[in-house]
Structures are given as C-alpha cells and as structure tokens.
Design brief:
The chain is mainly alpha-helical and about 180 residues long. About 55% of the residues lie in helices and about 0% in strands. It has a domain at about 1-70. Strands 1-2 form a two-stranded antiparallel ribbon. It is flat.
C-alpha cells in the first residue's frame, strides 16, 4: 500500500501520533472534515473532467478525459494497454504460432488426460499395473482386464503412524503433579 508516497507503516505511525496529539474526539471531527473535503475535490474533478470532455468533443479532438482522479494503478493500466497496442503487430505472429501449437496439442492432452491446471497433483503411476494408469494409444498396448482393475490402496508402513502413547501415566499433565492423584 502506497498512498501519496506514504507506506502502510508510515501511515499507521502518523495516525498514532495524531491520536496522541489530538485525542479521540478531535480525531473523529478531523476525519469528518477530511471526508467532506475529499468529497468536494472528487465532485470538482468530475465536473472539470465533464466540462473538458465536452470542449474536446466540440473541437473534434479525439481525447478521453478520465472521470475519476488519476492513480498509480490507472496510469499503469493505461500505459500497459497502449504498449500492447503499439507492439501488437510485432507480437501477432508469435501469438498465432502459440495458438496453433495449443490447438495441435489439444488431442494429445485429451488422449493422455493430462491435468488442465497446475494446482491439480499429478498422480504417480503404481508399479503393479502400469498399463492401467495410461490410456492405450494403440489397440494392442493394454489388455482390457488391466484397464478395468481397481487401484490398489496405499500400503501402510510403520513410519506412517504416529508413535503409540506410553502404557502407564508419568504424572505429567495431572492436577496434583503425581500419577496417583
């Protein structure tokens, strides 16, 4: 967050100093007054932008005046949009080539049933029936019985379970501090 060159922590420090200096009652009054002035400035900006737009339209100038106050984010969006317009003829052949490659890879993705997003985990093929995890690309590649086999449940090892609690109480955690009570 960066408002008029002031970061988030700096804004918090200013608010704390203002609260100490002014007190909570005057802070509320100051906030109300500041809100009124911000509202007035926005209204003046909108009226000025509307008047300028009317003048530009009457003069035949093809310029669009922003109706909202200009921010860093709006400037970045406008600049990136204009840059993409300017370089569109240069990047068009690359985009067309990438679109062609994507369209050629669609049947391959459908055949392999690859995950569509990066968030989906890729399952590790089991060693028991490797042909069951992949679709057959040729009719003789996989036997029909192997493709209808149910997946095997994971084998539980001793490292997968949490350690067993001790059989007898040691007194830890009791109200009296001893196991006997």
């Amino acid at each position: 967050m960066d408002i008029l060159g002031i970061g988030g922590w700096e804004l918090v420090a200013i608010l704390v100093i203002m609260l100490v200096v002014a007190g909570p009652k005057r802070m509320i009054q100051w906030s109300y007054t500041l809100g009124k002035y911000v509202s007035m400035l926005r209204k003046m900006w909108a009226e000025t932008a509307q008047m300028l737009q009317k003048e530009f339209d009457d003069a035949g100038v093809d310029v669009k005046v922003p109706t909202k106050p200009v921010t860093r984010g709006s400037i970045q969006r406008d600049v990136s949009r204009e840059i993409s317009k300017a370089f569109s003829p240069v990047t068009q052949p690359v985009r067309e080539t990438l679109d062609g490659v994507k369209s050629e890879l669609e049947p391959v993705n459908e055949n392999l049933k690859l995950p569509r997003t990066l968030n989906k985990p890729v399952t590790k093929p089991s060693t028991a029936a490797p042909a069951a995890n992949y679709p057959a690309t040729r009719p003789s590649a996989a036997a029909p019985a192997a493709s209808s086999a149910a997946p095997e449940p994971p084998v539980e090892t001793s490292n997968d379970r949490p350690p067993e609690p001790p059989a007898e109480q040691t007194g830890f955690g009791t109200w009296g501090g001893s196991a006997e009570g």
